[in-house]
Design brief:
The complex is a heterodimer of chains A (about 55) and B (about 180). Chain A is mostly helical. Helices cover about 75% and strands about 0% of the residues of chain A. Chain A is flat and about 45 Å long. In chain B, strands 1-2-5-4-3 form a 5-stranded mixed β-sheet, sandwiched between helices. In chain B, helix 5 packs across helix 7. The chains are: A mainly alpha (about 55), B alpha+beta (about 180).
Chain lengths: ~55, ~180
């Protein structure tokens, strides 16, 4: 069963996990980072195309 | 139809850039702009890979046409001011000014797959962004400070900023962003 925590403790844990995740992403090899950026570009393009025209 | 880039195609992008340098269509080059920040920090979305290079010329005017033609012959298309190499939009930017010249000269050698290339040092990437000084450039600096694996070398950064008359702007930036 999950341990009970105060809201502040919970928030601190979430922020610590986010920091660790960002650090992990920052440590990836450059080519993996480039591929990740290219995937972000593709998602952006698809979202732009899917956006209803006004 | 957009190409889905892979690790092999990323490596090929740098092979193409090295060919460009070898055939003297460009002089020494280095990766700068957003991808220099991404090299040192958490990846974020950006539109293209900025390649800063010395462009050979006989006078004061330069032309990127021979570079575009070279890539066109290899089957790559130009899109606005960019060339799409193996699905990666690449922008060739001429070295303008002493700071960018220095950033190219002192760039760090890295390898992508098995292909060698060069990238601005984190300190030069920050100095160039500070010189350009658009809101998105300042955001990139903050992002680097927040997520870089290795902290900036403050002493080296201040040497660069002093040499290029940017120290007062840096102090202002630090003051405005101190949390």
């Amino acid at each position: 069963m999950a341990e009970k925590r105060t809201p502040q403790q919970t928030l601190d844990r979430v922020l610590a996990a986010k920091r660790a995740h960002r650090h992990k992403l920052a440590s990836l090899p450059f080519e993996e980072k480039i591929l990740m950026v290219l995937r972000m570009q593709q998602v952006s393009r698809r979202l732009k195309q899917a956006r209803p025209k006004r | 139809m957009p190409v889905d880039p892979t690790s092999a195609s990323i490596e090929c992008v740098f092979r193409r850039l090295n060919e460009l340098e070898r055939t003297r269509l460009i002089g020494r080059y280095a990766i700068g702009g957003a991808f220099a920040f991404i090299y040192y920090a958490e990846p974020f979305e950006t539109s293209d890979l900025d390649v800063f290079a010395h462009i050979p010329s006989e006078g004061a005017l330069i032309s990127l046409a021979p570079i575009y033609e070279h890539f066109r012959q290899l089957g790559y298309r130009a899109e606005d001011e960019r060339i799409v190499i193996e699905g990666v939009p690449v922008q060739i930017l001429p070295a303008t000014g002493p700071l960018v010249e220095e950033a190219i000269q002192r760039a760090t050698s890295i390898t992508v797959g098995s292909e060698p290339t060069r990238i601005f040092t984190a300190e030069h990437a920050v100095a160039v962004a500070l010189q350009t000084n658009r809101p998105k450039d300042r955001m990139k600096i903050l992002h680097l400070q927040d997520t870089a694996v290795t902290p900036l070398n403050q002493q080296e950064l201040e040497f660069i900023l002093t040499r290029h008359g940017l120290l007062a702007r840096w102090r202002k930036f630090e003051e405005a962003t101190r949390g």
